[in-house]
């Protein structure tokens, strides 16, 4: 459930960004990416996801889109390095 909720959150961020192509790609790969989100949920847990999402929202609210993108990339790199 946590993986699905996080996937929905990131899809919503993409939709709200106006990047319709990226949102379509997320939808197209949703079944495969759910495995990734479930593994991320197991790695960070609910508290980790909440902290990440809150920080991401703060960056977006401040208009720091490039920093938000970098933050997501850094989180993903951390996850990959753990395995």
Determine Rg (CA atoms, Å): 12 Å
What kind of oligomer do you see?
Answer: single chain
Class of secondary structure makeup: mainly alpha
Q: What is the terminal-to-terminal distance?
A: 22 Å
Order of helices and strands: HHHH
The overall average pLDDT, rounded, is: 89
Number of strands: 0
Strand content: under 5%
Describe the protein's topology.
Layout: H1 2-17, H2 20-28, H3 30-61, H4 65-81
Describe this structure in words.
- The chain is mostly helical and 83 residues long.
- It has helices at residues 2-17, 20-28, 30-61, 65-81.
- The longest helix is centred in the middle third of the chain and has 32 residues, at 30-61.
- The mean pLDDT is 89.
What labels describe this entry?
4 helices; mainly alpha; 83 residues
Quick synopsis:
With 83 residues, the protein is an all-alpha fold. The chain contains 4 helices and no strands.
